[in-house]
Amino acid sequence: MAEKAKGKMEQAKGKAKEVAGKATGNERMKAEGKTDQVKGKAREVAGKAEEQARGIKDSLRDRRRP
What we know:
Layout: H1 2-24, H2 27-64
Helix pairs in contact: 1-2
């Protein structure tokens, strides 16, 4: 859960940077914002995959118990 939340926060930070960059005409800030959004999305997806893997592991462990 923590990675998903961190990813969402990074996306929000990136969006804010992108908007600020557009408003001020700062292309570098705008690009950094887009990069932060992509990193945040990747982190969120990794967090979701980790949760799914943990769920599969738990369900397999439960199957082995009589």
